[in-house]
Design goal:
The complex is a heterodimer of chains A (133) and B (375).
Chain A lengths: L12 H8 L4 E4 L6 E2 L15 E4 L3 E10 L13 E8 L4 E4 L13 E9 L2 E8 L4
Chain B lengths: L5 E8 L10 H16 L8 E5 L9 H8 L6 E5 L5 H14 L5 E8 L7 H4 L13 H16 L3 H16 L12 H6 L2 E4 L1 E2 L9 E9 H6 L6 E10 L15 H12 L8 E3 L5 H10 L8 H5 L17 H4 L6 H12 L11 E8 L4 E8 L1
Parallel strand pairs in B: 2-3, 2-4, 9-10
Antiparallel strand pairs in B: 1-7, 1-8, 4-7, 5-6, 8-11, 10-11
Helix pairs in contact in B: 6-10
The chains are: A mainly beta (133), B alpha/beta (375).
The structure holds zinc ion.
């Protein structure tokens, strides 16, 4: 069973193109200023179209995190235990990611910085603690 | 005024656990047959079918497939898709339809067979995030569990107390799928699954079905129903945001569902003698107690400790074992246990039950419904 990789569509291709270029992008609404991820055609605040892509500064904080001790897919069997986290960017949007730090050191509110890594054939937005080398 | 105008006239369920070779339609038919027998009414009286879509194997036109198997051509026949909350919102929609004169007697039911069939839905990758390893239903609840601990310092023992109570109650229930009691030490000793979740924080995976007959109190008198249980309050409200995007992880619109149900019933948390709180994961119980106003935000720990939620305690919860012990089937069995508590026929009967409360929720706390039954 191959790992489902992100499906690149006309809607989200700017997101994956950004990561391919080493940057994380989010959408913002030119009408009401709302900012969000993942990609949508209509702004979930004012419902209008025409969202623009913006480059994230790459800093944010950990909202929550979990540590998998069981693999739901063979691709992760050799990586156990691994973490998955929710990070909120300083600009507001939230995303699922992995934290590049020992599990015991992760905390809610921990400051993190973007680190784009190639994995499973795609560039993924991961985060490391601010101040880590 | 909706309070007391509608009743649950009959309840029925299949065996719980592993039921190989049974389709969800077949399981639903058995539960409906038993609910009609319990109500003491004929099938031909039924003109409404409100069924929750099976979680593990979705089908189109499920409401009609089931109606066909029931030999019914209902005035209203519909499949509801809100995850676990669909069971109790099905009761509410049935009452609204009866109130509007669009049907008179409704079957509200649910069946699933993930234990013998496919469990894939519970282990699936979540959206485009599989490359991060973001899989499973449990992990979404683990995110919420962790955030609750981070915000409120909720100790392991609070989660453990919920599991221990459910397992004690399930051990006393001859129909329960898991009848092995659990100690707090045993809870803590179990290996993490998706930390901070341990095995005993997680609902069972179960085959089974449950059904209710809903009608007006007037119709129940006309039909000679013997043990009709009045519906005093109902509410529903939906958080809808995926966990990742939810601005607050530690409170949901369960708060609004409960507010509406208590207002309809003219009651508050202090008026409830027994509660069935949807326990797909232990965090759900703690947050529901907080959102419902049984205790202040972040203080469920004090509410659940020292056996206070066990039979004989201040507010016994999930007295048949809940999703952690009786059956992992989403929700209708909790309503059935509340019906038994109000009728006075529960195995672990709580003395002097005047008002029983039930919560149902679905997705990863995306949806929520509240029900208050009583005399
Ligand atoms: Zn907008």
């Amino acid at each position: 069973m191959t790992l489902p990789t992100p499906e690149v569509t006309p809607l989200n291709e700017a997101y994956w193109a950004g990561l391919a270029a080493g940057e994380l992008r989010f959408q913002h609404c030119p009408h009401c200023g709302h900012r969000w991820l993942p990609a949508r055609r209509e702004c979930p605040a004012c419902l209008r179209e025409g969202a623009a892509w913006e480059k994230a500064a790459g800093t944010g904080q950990v909202i929550s995190w979990v540590v998998y001790h069981t693999a739901y897919h063979d691709a992760f069997r050799d990586r156990l235990p691994y973490n998955v986290a929710i990070v909120e960017l300083d600009e507001g949007p939230r995303l699922i990611t992995n934290i590049l730090a020992p599990h015991e050191s992760i905390a809610a509110g921990m400051r993190v910085r973007l680190e784009v890594q190639s994995d499973f054939g795609v560039n993924l937005p991961r985060f490391a603690p601010v101040g880590a080398a | 005024m909706m309070r007391g105008k509608f009743v649950i006239a009959g309840v029925g369920h299949t065996a719980f656990g592993t039921l190989p070779g049974r389709s969800t339609v077949s399981l639903n038919v058995e539960a409906c047959r038993r609910a009609l027998e319990d109500a003491g009414i004929e099938k031909r009286a039924v003109d409404g079918v409100f069924v929750k879509t099976p979680t593990s194997a979705r089908e189109i036109l499920y409401g009609q497939t089931l109606s066909e198997a029931l030999g019914l051509q209902p005035r209203i026949g519909i499949a509801l898709d809100q995850g676990g909350a669909a069971n109790m919102s099905g009761i509410a929609f049935a009452c609204l339809a009866i109130e509007a004169g669009m049907c008179e007697v409704a079957l509200v039911c649910y069946a699933d067979n993930p234990r013998s069939g496919s469990r894939a839905t519970y282990a699936r990758p979540r959206g485009d995030d599989a490359a991060f390893g973001w899989f499973s239903t449990a992990a979404g609840y683990a995110m919420i569990h962790r955030r609750h601990v981070a915000e409120h310092g909720t100790p392991e023992a609070a989660f453990g107390a919920v599991a221990v109570a459910a397992r004690r109650h399930g051990a006393a229930n001859p129909n329960a799928q898991l009848r092995k009691p659990l100690t707090l030490d045993g809870y803590v000793a179990a290996a993490p699954l998706v930390a901070p979740l341990r095995r005993d924080d997680c609902a069972l995976i179960s085959d089974g079905a449950a059904a209710l007959v809903v009608m007006s109190a007037r119709r129940a008198r006309e039909l000679g129903v013997k043990a009709a249980v009045p519906i005093l309050g109902m509410g529903q409200a939906h958080t809808s945001w995926e966990v990742t995007q939810r601005p607050c992880l530690t409170s949901t619109r369960a708060k609004d569902a409960a507010r509406d149900a208590f207002a309809m019933a003219g009651l508050g948390p202090a008026d409830i003698q027994v509660a069935q709180i949807y326990d797909c994961f232990t965090i759900t119980v703690l947050m529901t107690l907080e959102d419902y106003g049984f205790c202040p935000p972040g203080q469920a720990e004090g509410f659940v400790r020292e056996g206070r939620i066990e039979h004989g305690g201040d507010l016994p919860l999930n007295t048949a074992g809940g999703l952690l012990s009786e059956t992992g089937m989403p929700g209708l069995q909790l309503v059935i246990e509340a019906v038994r508590q109000v009728r006075g026929t529960a195995t672990l009967q709580v003395p002097g039950v005047r008002h029983a409360l039930v919560s149902n929720q679905g997705g990863t706390m995306h949806t929520h419904a509240t029900l208050i039954l009583g005399g």
